[in-house]
Design goal:
Number of helices: 10
Strand order of the largest sheet: 1-2
Strand content: under 5%
Radius of gyration: 35 Å
Structural class: mainly alpha
Largest sheet: 2 strands, antiparallel
Number of strands: 2
Shape: elongated
Length: about 250
């Protein structure tokens, strides 16, 4: 009997045992706090991983975009060397001027009166004159392309970007069907300016690279290309202005 009693801890010893058990086994509130902390850390980790994934995707997209621009620029150089003599005709001695900040005059003689009207500040009169020209049946391919691009330039300057883009696209189709690199380059230049006005900076860059060897336009092309590149880089990863639309090639 005495041996059994001796095996039972005294009151002081019982308190010590209970305390030890409590220290070794956290309370419910402690466990709950620890779980909440782990869940919160998991949430932050997932956010960081998501950001890292998006950043990696953005870097990959920019790399593909840079490679595409490089290949296109290389192709443009090759095509520029293969231009026909008729497309290389020099206008030496003929003074040129920029109208509305985006149209280099003179272009085609058939457009001379309309160019003069726009230069004098009467864009509506110039647009009316070109509209009448579209009704003629004796215009050449070059005149047709320039009429579309001239109309696009006036509409772009007036803020009608949707119609301006349409006329530039029509000009590109005509130039490609005629297999004219020079005319297609000029159409790409005006397409690029339309995309720039629409804040579609990646698309604008692409078009301006395609137009990079357009005679008499190099300074304007480079200035607008650099501007588009700077604006694109300042956009957020998901901004449409950073995206390149293959359907618009």
């Amino acid at each position: 009997m005495s041996q059994v009693l001796q095996s039972i801890p005294s009151g002081h010893e019982q308190v010590s045992c209970v305390s030890a058990v409590t220290d070794e086994n956290p309370s419910y509130d402690d466990l709950l706090g620890a779980v909440e902390y782990l869940l919160d850390e998991r949430k932050h980790l997932m956010q960081r991983l998501t950001f890292a994934e998006r950043t990696a995707q953005e870097f990959c997209e920019q790399a593909r975009y840079a490679n595409s621009l490089a290949r296109t620029a290389q192709t443009s150089v090759i095509l520029a060397k293969d231009q026909t003599k008729s497309e290389r005709k020099s206008k030496a001695g003929v003074p040129t001027t920029w109208i509305g900040g985006s149209w280099l005059a003179p272009s085609e003689s058939v457009l001379a009166p309309a160019e003069t009207a726009w230069q004098d500040g009467n864009a509506q009169k110039a647009l009316t004159m070109v509209t009448l020209l579209f009704q003629r049946h004796d215009i050449t391919v070059s005149e047709d392309v320039h009429m579309n691009l001239f109309t696009s330039a006036i509409l772009r300057a007036s803020g009608d970007l949707a119609q301006a883009g349409k006329y530039a696209e029509d000009a590109l189709v005509i130039a490609r069907e005629a297999d004219s690199y020079m005319l297609a380059s000029k159409a790409e230049f005006h397409r690029g300016l339309c995309f720039l006005k629409q804040n579609r900076f990646a698309q604008a860059q692409w078009c301006l690279v395609l137009a990079s060897h357009l005679e008499g336009h190099q300074d304007q092309i480079e200035a607008n290309r650099v501007f588009a590149d700077e604006r694109r880089r300042n956009l957020g990863p998901s901004d449409p202005g950073r995206k390149f639309d293959l359907a618009c090639i």
